[in-house]
């Protein structure tokens, strides 16, 4: 069977996807699978790369350039139409993060051309990527979360003063301002006053016309990994231990000034609650395949669900696979399970 590894993508999380793809390539069971590389460039071109039958020697194999414009020594890719990704006896692994990959667009496209794929379906991906929609779903399920105010770009442009008053009426500074559809902390800022709130909103609107303003809190960050279609399993909780005030893009991928604590040093009843909320949230957004559910935990042991990530960071050093490893599921076996879950879901739809 072929795994069609789809990576790169047109989002701000392009580089993260390449890191995840390389880890997956190193762990796939090549005695069962061949891997067809398909790279989506930042401009949105689809490039078909080599078919791998064994672990690649280096990461270079992932850096595809168009064959008619590349330099000697570069790995060439053949420019294809997206629908040419379809092959018999194959499953697509869309290892893409952020908009245009994790948000239901690619999933919808794959449904349309009738191809099985790994991970969450259309609705789940779209809801999980949109922080405003996620919050309303969690609210409906009665899952605790920090207070928030959704603000559309038009509302802000029309009457900034009204937005200031609305936010200050229901939230305290510092506030966190986020584009609704994004990940890896891109476009997120902390605002301590009106002036910063204005700048933060303008920054967020560079990425999306929908933004959400949240109550900022001092909290630990706790994460639970989820796996399954109808039968949902969760891991123990892990903690992202930061020596930075805010887990931004640099601290996530560049500075490496964060560590993971697995298991998280938290009371048992807090862990049980986190697992319960994670499962409930996953069910509410119609999860299938996988998701990582992220929480804030205050010093008073209050737990708030922050978000679900339907295609979490997937390098060998990422929290999602690390949590499964700690629970007894090795990285290679985890990939195998995800493939089977993707195939099962596809078969059930037929
Ligand atoms: P992303 O989808 O980009 O990861 P998050 O909502 O998880 O977006 O926010 C990124 C990071 O910003 C969080 O991991 C946390 O460090 C910080 N953060 C986000 N919201 C809040 C908040 N309400 N209070 C305190 N810190 C926050
Ligand atoms: Mg996210
Ligand atoms: Mg996050
Ligand atoms: K998300």
Number of helices: 11
User: What is the overall pLDDT average?
Assistant: 93
Global outline = globular
State the CATH class of the largest domain. Answer: Alpha Beta
- CATH-defined topology of the largest domain: D-amino Acid Aminotransferase, Chain A, domain 1
Oligomer: single chain
The N- to C-terminal Cα distance equals 19 Å
Q: Which percent range describes the beta-strand content?
A: 25-35%
CATH superfamily of the largest domain, by name, is ATP-grasp fold, B domain
Q: What class, by secondary structure content?
A: alpha+beta
| Spatial sequence of strands, sheet with the most strands | 4-5-3-2-1-6
Integer tally of domains: 3
| Portion in helices | 25-40%
Number of DSSP strands?
15
Radius of gyration: 20 Å
Q: Overview of this structure, please?
A:
- The protein is 34% helix and 26% strand.
- It has 350 residues and is α+β, with helices and mostly antiparallel strands.
- The chain has 3 domains: 116 residues, Rossmann fold, CATH 3.40.50; 147 residues, D-amino Acid Aminotransferase, Chain A, domain 1 (2-Layer Sandwich), CATH 3.30.470.20; 68 residues, ATP-grasp fold, A domain (Dna Ligase, domain 1).
- The strands form 3 sheets. It has a 6-stranded mixed sheet with strand order 4-5-3-2-1-6, with helices on both faces. A 5-stranded antiparallel sheet has the order 13-12-11-14-15.
- Strand 2 and strand 3 form a beta hairpin.
- The longest helix has 19 residues.
- The radius of gyration is 20 Å and the shape is globular.
- It starts with a strand and ends with a helix.
- The site of potassium ion has 6 residues, from helix 3 and strand 15.
